[in-house]
Design goal:
By secondary structure, the protein is α+β, with helices and mostly antiparallel strands. The chain has a single domain (about 5-175), classed as Nucleoside Triphosphate Pyrophosphohydrolase (Alpha-Beta Complex). Helices cover about 20% and strands about 25% of the residues. The protein contains three helices and nine strands; from the N terminus they run αββββαβββββα. Strands 1, 2, 3, 4, 5, 6, 7, 8 and 9 form a nine-stranded mixed β-sheet that branches.
């Protein structure tokens, strides 16, 4: 059974709450869009992030972020930008009907608007993600799990992590890998 936040009722409630913002913001010009991917990993609700390589030049090296990037002129709107970037970065194709809505824009360090697009990607096996090694950002997938204070690189996420990761008594599960290296 899915956790309440990922249930059909949770989705309906969320879509209703975001309906107005989605209608207002979908076609509004923005510098960039990101996908806020809700998922479950072995039955545990999680958020999927990207971990930028620490070997990159520039201001985003080593950053943990949602998948996304700059809007291209060919993108129909911010939803298409977020979905395209997620597919390019993580090899994860999210159908548009999985989008729950659009959140209020945030601003990056340069004050450019970035539009978060909320979507459920459903149950996820981190081992099936195929990050695009040709991407200039050289990203790796990372997960945030309930009860954790950091991020897990999905290539370092052992089975025991999800069983023990929710229990702070297991100190070895709290040694989070933060570097894309």
């Amino acid at each position: 059974m899915l956790p309440d936040c990922l249930s059909a009722e949770g989705e309906r409630r969320c879509r209703r709450l975001l309906e107005g913002a989605t209608a207002r913001l979908r076609a509004r010009p923005a510098a960039a869009a990101v996908l806020v991917p809700l998922c479950s990993v072995r039955g545990v609700p999680a958020l999927l992030y990207t971990l930028r390589s620490s070997r990159l030049a520039g201001r985003h090296k080593g950053d943990v972020s949602f998948p996304g990037g700059k809007c291209d002129p060919a993108d129909q709107d911010v939803v298409h930008t977020a979905l395209r970037e997620t597919r390019e970065e993580l090899g994860l194709a999210v159908p548009e009907e999985r989008v729950w809505g659009i959140l209020q824009p945030v601003h990056d360090r340069g004050k450019a608007p970035v539009v978060p697009v909320l979507a459920s990607v459903g149950p996820l096996d981190p081992q099936n993600l195929r990050p695009n090694r040709e991407e200039p950002h050289q990203v790796r997938p990372a997960l945030s799990l309930p009860g954790e204070t950091g991020f897990w690189r999905t290539d370092t996420l052992p089975d025991v992590t999800l069983r023990r990761g929710l229990n702070p008594a297991h100190s070895e599960s709290r040694a989070l890998s933060r570097h894309a290296g």
